[in-house]
Amino acid sequence: MTRIERRGVCLVLSGPSGAGKTAIGDALLASEPALRRSVSVTTRQPRPGEIEGVHYHFRERAEFDRLIDAGELLEWAQVFGRHSYGTPRQPVVQALSAGTDVVFDIDWQGHHQLRQALPGDVVGVFVLPPELAALEARLRQRSGDTQAEIARRMGLARDEIRHWPDFDHVIVNDDLPAAVASVRAVLHAARVATGRQRGLRDFVSGLVPGAGGSRPQTAR
User: Residue ranges of the chain with pLDDT lower than 70?
Assistant: First the structure.
């Protein structure tokens, strides 16, 4: 019998800082064996406890620029006019081909670039806080930033929120377990999309001769 295989999914979690993207991603990674985290390249120095290849790939500016020029990054951006971050192309492409899903925690610009680089492979989920006051409270709880820095981050959050229509799905994270369940449902639905299942037409033809259909499948 023909075996059905599937191409992996790029699951993008985006939204303002403090909305809960990382917590949702961590929960999914802990419970979804076929899901892995995208490890970004960055020009900043490692922070205490960060491990090369686990948290980030730490590279000098010259090497980062070389990766851009060589087309080896799927998306990249300079953050706050200082350090740059980007997604290496090869590990993601290999994972997708092997049927492994990759979760990304990137902003709306990275989401847009990723869609351009891998059309048909990206499912975007935008995470909203229940209210801006809750978002500000989360920012205060998790950092020792000054009032000016928190105000700056809140301004960036408002700008980020304006891009919610660019995404396939939007959830309001007012209950973390419920938010995780919603994103898990999105991931599972994306996995069984008709166009992601390689060999599906032949499988169906084996069940019912001639029922495979003539519409071309898009899974690569």
Answer: 1-2, 80-81, 142-144, 214-220
Residue 128, phi then psi, degrees to nearest 5: -110, 145
Q: 109 lies in a domain? A: yes
Largest CA distance in the chain: 68
Amino acid residing at 92: V
Q: Whole domain around residue 179: which residue ranges?
A: 5-38+99-207
CATH of the domain at 165: 3.40.50.300
**211 touches 205 (CB < 8 A):** yes
- pLDDT the model gives residue 118: 97
pLDDT digits (tens, 9 = 90+) for 77-91: 987 668 899 999 999
Buried-exposed string 93-110: b where 16+ CB fall within 10 A, e elsewhere: bebbeeebbbbbbbbbeb
